[in-house]
Fold this protein.
Amino acid sequence: MLLISFPKFLPSQPLLLSSGPDNALKMWIFDQSDGSARLLRSRCGHSAPPTRVRFWSRGGLGLLSSGLDHSLRRLSITRDVQSNTEFSQGSVVKKARAKGVKAESLKLPPITAFAAEMTRAQEWDSVVTCHAGFHSAQTWNMHNHAIGKHKLRSLHKAAKPLCVAITGCGNFCVLGMSTGHVEMFNIQSGIHRGEFGKPQAHKLPVRGVAVNSINTEVYTGAGDRNVSFWSFQRKTRLTSVDLLSPVSSLVYHRDSSLMAVACDDFSVYVVDTDTRRTVRVFTGHSNRITDMVFSPDSRWLLTGSMDCSIRTWDLATGRLLDYFLVDAPPTSLSLSATSDFLATTHVDDLGIYLWSNKSLYSSVPLRPLPGDFRPLTIELPNTRGDREEGEEEEEGR
């Protein structure tokens, strides 16, 4: 039973507004014959902290997010009323009522990683998700806002998908497994289309995977301190780059062929996949790096860490351009297509936060920060009812 924290009747109307810890605002109307109320309309977000967010739309203003509430949501930063939608997982609520259990218990486990590609979104499923402790990846249909047709399961029984990448053509996805295997599937049919490496791609779990823009190479990183380059067609290893620490994640920028690789020693390696060499190494974080994102023009690399910092690195000079702290560690970062907005999610926080890029609208010096720079701590905005604010004022007196 959820606690209703802010019930309020609208003046001279049979309408009741309510909110609670489920991150929802609901309007109830009292028009039943027995005097009871029914739900008229509602606005809601993630009921548990979101853990992954990505800009995804042709205009660059749409977001995909997943969270610990077992849900995948689509929203727009400009038209929130029409576009804030949770992807359907079937008749979960109806089945839960029949069995007398919570709906969350019948949903898929929380999403740990996802990839989306808009090229074929109108024709077939265009989103693939990996789930905590789950042995198969799930496809989703963006056009219908619903779960897709296929569960993509490895040929190896013990393998669990940890990371995923979709090709630019929207036809294939590549899954990195907990057993070190890397496998490819056709998204439209769900058919297994090959496996990279024999007997497996890596000796330890695969923590990052990417595909280049013309479907000729696949890139993987794993806990064995190795970043491998693979032939997309032959599924054979082309070369590899050995690092000083196990790989924790990687992101790839298709237009520039640059790949950022985060490691367990809190450093970030930038690899040029054309020359297959490390071109930059960034250090400075003091805790695990949770996410990274390239700017669309590949001039900047943004990194977020459990040390509560978000940093902006200049790739041309290899210097730190911006650095600030937040009061809750960031868990995910995503830049819009025009670099005007940065979306972030944070530990134990229900919100998805949007940050404006001031360098696009005002004169901001983009000089490297000095070595003794002390970052500011920015408090994340929150929402509180008038009642809570009044109670704090009384306590202050």
In short: The chain has two domains: 1-44, 48-380. The longest helix spans residues 386-396. Helices lie at 80-83, 92-99, 386-396.
